[in-house]
Structures are given as structure tokens and as C-alpha cells.
Amino acid sequence: MHLAQALCRLHLWSDSGIQTFKERLAQPTHLWNPEPWIKGSDLIRAGLKPGPAFGKLLSQARAMQLDGQWASEDMALEWLASVIQEPERFQRPEQE
User: Fold this and answer.
1) Separation between Cα atoms, residue 66 and residue 54, nearest integer Å
2) Other C-beta atoms within 10 Å of 13: how many?
3) Which one of 29, 51, 75, 87 is most buried, by most CB atoms within 10 A?
4) Rounded distance, CA 34 to CA 23, Å?
């Protein structure tokens, strides 16, 4: 028995997710861990300055990509363009 299965039994949790993840991990890596569609270079090109909000935005974008909230890189970049229109959320070079 694997540790994950033992923990599920101990806590009376369903172990159906374990099989799902095993199947997912058996797939080629690029299917479950694709290259990020939004990178730091995209943020810099958009005029954002590296900092805490920069990393937060990259993390949010990555989570949204992996959650399937976008169907394409173009959709991700459109999202980025809409998000950076909120200047109070990010520190832009011209605001120094």
C-alpha cells in the first residue's frame, strides 16, 4: 500500500483522486506541465517592474493556465493586457 492510500484509509477519505493523479503523471510531461504562456519577459514588455506583485501575477497566471481557464496563449495574453490596466495593482517604471 502506498502512503497516500494509507492516509486516505486512515482519515476515511476517498482515494479516487490518487488514481486520477497516477494516470495524469503517466502521460507525457508536456500534457500535465506545459510551458508557461505568460513569462516574466511578457510582464517586462508590458511595462511592469519586477517585484512582489510581479511574482504574484506570474503565479496567478500559471494557476489559471493549469486550471484550463484559457484555451490558448493568445487568450492568456489578452487576460494579461486586461489585468495590467489596473495600475494600483502593479508598480510600473513610470511610477517610481
Assistant:
1) 19
2) 13
3) 75
4) 16
Residue 77 phi/psi, 5° resolution?
Answer: -70, -30
| Cβ-based burial of 76 (10 A; exposed 0-12, middle 13-18, buried ≥19) | buried
pLDDT of res. 78: 93
Assigned C-alpha cell, 96:
517610481
Model confidence pLDDT, tens digit, residues 45-80: 988 888 888 898 999 999 999 999 999 999 999 999
- Residue type present at position 67: D
Q: Which domains does the chain have, with CATH numbers?
A: 1-28 (no CATH), 34-95 (1.10.246)
